[in-house]
Design goal:
7-stranded mixed sheet; Endonuclease, Chain A; 7 strands; elongated; 31% helix
Length: 200
């Protein structure tokens, strides 16, 4: 709206710079030369799996790798890891990606929880079959890292793995069903592209 030609020129230059920066960011991002870090504060809400993963779950994603040593039974030290893994699988089934195979690498539950862990995972495996998804389960006693990889090249490392939600206050408390409303434990999420990472 300004009539000042000098101002117009400056504004055009600024707009051009911003557009160039934005375009560079998009190219930078799409080429995978990227590292994004999200810090989830203690008791923060709004970090459901959909919010965290959706932008990386493009339509070409058909295969997913989950490495998490603590996908175990619901009673394990008040963790809800099996349910969290199930919820993660539900998100994958809903799309927009067309996941056909999920690979899970975890560790065995210790003691009496092992049979319940295996039976829970087998139930998830059978249920996924009804949606045309194969779940491959493997166990390792030496696994420590927690990471999720998609076959479009994106890799997400979460300090606490999938188990970053706090235990709900009760079965009828807000946040029990909707994980966007569930308070979180403090953790850090790092997003990389495998094209620009090296395995040691």
């Amino acid at each position: 709206a300004t009539k000042d030609e000098a101002k117009k020129h400056r504004y055009r230059q600024k707009i051009s710079e911003w557009l160039t920066l934005d375009l560079c960011h998009d190219l930078f991002f799409s080429d995978g030369k990227y590292h994004k870090q999200i810090r989830i504060e203690e008791n923060a809400t709004g970090f459901s799996y959909e919010k965290l993963f959706q932008e990386y779950l493009t339509e070409i994603v058909s295969e997913v790798w989950v490495e998490d040593p603590y996908v175990r039974h619901v009673h394990q030290a008040s963790r809800y890891s099996l349910y969290n893994f199930l919820r993660f699988c539900e998100m994958l089934v809903k799309g927009p990606c067309k996941v056909k195979t999920i690979h899970l690498l975890t560790s065995y539950d210790e003691g009496s929880g092992r049979s319940q862990q295996i039976s829970g995972l087998e139930e998830i495996q059978q249920s996924l079959k009804n949606y045309g998804v194969t779940l491959n389960i493997a166990f390792s006693s030496s696994i420590h890292d927690r990471e999720i990889r998609f076959n479009n090249g994106w890799m997400i490392k979460i300090g606490r793995g999938l188990d970053y939600f706090k235990k709900p206050q009760g079965r009828f408390s807000i946040g029990y069903c909707d994980f966007d409303l569930r308070p979180c434990h403090e953790t850090t999420v790092d997003v990389f592209h495998t094209k620009h990472t090296k395995k040691m």
